[in-house]
Amino acid sequence: MSALIQAHIRRTAAADRDTEQIGPFLATFSRESGNPFLNYAIPHGGARPTRDDVAALVTAYSRRGLIPRLEYLPKLAPDVEAALLAGGFTVTDRLPLMACADGGVTDQPVPDDIELVTPATDQEFRDMINAQREAFGEAEPTGDADVAGYRRQLAAGGLAVLARHAVTGEPAGGGICTPISDGVGEIGGIAVRAAFRNRGVGAAITAYLTREAHRAGAATAFLTPAGEPQERIYRRVGFDTIDEVVFVSRSVAGS
Question: N-acetyltransferase domain spans which residues (predicted)?
Fold first, then answer.
């Protein structure tokens, strides 16, 4: 399952980004954003990068003004971390990889004053993206390119949900799922604005997206919680830890 998930991550990252093969690394570069979480490399399974491979990877990101960064499942490429650390990289996080099989979702109530809708208009996409960015503490403004990117993802089979106040329409949060491939889909961007937290909105968004992913053909949906509070929410929905994801980066581009 870990190998299938890593392959899915690699395909999804490459689908709407520029890519460059650098030694055993697939480097991906967003066409629309310098956000580090949209610009990262993934090693091939069993990769054994050389010092020159690591240096070339740094150069590829630095010449674009980006922070050299990787996201991957370390058990599938156990020799990569040491090579990166020797090249000046730092492990910035290790997070659990959680999965939920088809039929494994536990129902989560949607608060009475909240509705979950699939964004369709430009404003609904903007509301979802703005809610996500506010919840994640990101200051980057939402532009037409962001809306277009989400529309492309949905057109390719992805999923999205906007949580909003049922009466006022005020955005509460949102989340997405990547297009399903080989029976796998990634749930991501689960976010709830501060004013709507601690009411079960995040759990409701997660359960909704996971069920929709299964209906769309995912035998397994997976996600990566940002911390223990999120991990508890996802466990309540029906996710279990099956592996880990490591995040590795150089602190300053070109350093």
Answer: 115-255
pLDDT by residue (tens digit) across 52-81?
A: 999 999 999 999 999 999 999 999 999 999
Buried b (16+ CB within 10 A) or exposed e, 173-192: bbbbbbbbbeebbbbbbbbb
Distance CA 161, CA 209 (A): 7
DSSP string, 104-144: -PPP-PPPTTEEEE---SHHHHHHHHHHHHHHTT--PPP-H
For tokens 């939402």, name the residue: 142
Phi, psi of 161 (to 5 degrees): -140, 135
For the record, the structure tokens of 253 come out as: 């581009």
- What does the pLDDT average to over 166-193? 97
Mean pLDDT value of segment 217-234: 96
